[in-house]
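Recall that a protein's primary structure is simply its ordered list of amino acids. Everything else, from secondary elements to tertiary packing, is in principle encoded there. The following example makes that idea concrete.
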Amino acid sequence: MREVIATSDGPKAIGPYSQAIKANGMVFLSGQIPLDPATQQLIEGDVAAQTERVLQNLAEVLKAAGSSLGQVVKTTVFLKNMSDFAAMNEVYGRYFTQAPPARSTVEVARLPKDVLVEIDVIALAD
């Protein structure tokens, strides 16, 4: 069974994709960028501020799917500049304090709307 997850507490999709798909006890979230869900505008700030907003967005979409950050098993972090790794990692570590998920982090040439960070996750459904 496949269920589309959509919530106004997370940014609306800016293309032909779902915020998340719940299937077979798992939740697959599309990559989140630092959009304010209330305004659909990018937040101002450095990679730390952007990472904070991204993780808040992920938490809201997971909540809508009946899951949580504590149920995340895998993340992929896309950074515009790997020099921002330490700042991103500091914020990330505040959200994943115990038994953090597996993670890949890659530097990419460009991200949607020229943001500094994008993160996607796979989680267990509660």
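The helical segments are 47-64, 85-95. The radius of gyration is 14 Å.
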